[in-house]
Amino acid sequence: MKLWVTLEGRDAEVSFRTEGGTLVLEVEGRAIAADFHRLPDGEVYSLIVNGRSHEVRVAGAPRAAGNGGGAPGGAGSAIEVTIDGTTFPVEVRHPIEKALAGVRRVGAATTGETVVSPMPGTVVAFRVRPGDRVAAGQPVAVVEAMKMQNELAARHGGVVTDVLVAERASVSAGQPLVRLKADGA
Fold this sequence. Notes:
Strands 1-2-3-4-5-6-7-8 form an eight-stranded antiparallel barrel. Strands 9-16-14-11 form a four-stranded antiparallel beta sheet. It is mainly β and 185 residues long. The chain is 9% helix and 55% strand.
């Protein structure tokens, strides 16, 4: 099976298959084989790669802040992979989702975008007002959830047309917060 994986800001096509008790991963033309055993809790695996034992935990993760939640285009699954005590957030998408996200980005760049809350929480602050020009990646709002503040950024930039909720308002996951129109749209 082939998947697109985003790890530490890098996208890679990953294919994997199992052959008995061996997991074979192919990443960017490089094959990695590991003997693996699922431990009783269901989230932890024991992997042996090149004679070295590793404990790997795979679990669901909160959606990423700043891009409308999750993978570009709002698709994909957020997981956390912990290898020998170090945790990495990972986005996993089907290759079709990757292609569709690219099409959505082109459309948003020419028509505008809406920044949404990736999770239920409280709007702590807005960093913009209607009429402000926003660059791609610029923070537009801060949402607090579970005592953590998440700064949300515009993906494409443009001009702020609407701030859709008030500061200190409670918001739900996916609720629109700020609307932008593309420059020249």
